[in-house]
Amino acid sequence: MSQNNYLIDKRVILDCERMTLSCAGESITISESERSLLIAFHEGLFKKDDLINYVWGRKGVVVSDASYYKLINQLRGSFDKIGLKGHLL
């Protein structure tokens, strides 16, 4: 597996270069923020403030909690599109 790829839950491939999520032959394009959020999870970040800082704060962007929750829901929708239960997040 490429250095730009992450294996999630032994079945989902996150391709950071192509910005795609793939599982069981299904593949979708995700946003840069979704990609950053998944990488943050992979690096062991789970607290809301840590995730907000990782996804947006490093770029100097200040966001509200609403943006955080919107991104979580967006990522859940992406998981649904490739046949996974989005509520796993």
From TrEMBL:
Sorted UniProt keywords: Membrane, Transmembrane
Domain of life: Bacteria
GO biological process annotation, one example: regulation of DNA-templated transcription
Single GO term (MF): DNA binding
InterPro entries: Sig_transdc_resp-reg_C-effctor, WH-like_DNA-bd_sf
Protein name: Transmembrane regulator
Organism: Salmonella enterica I
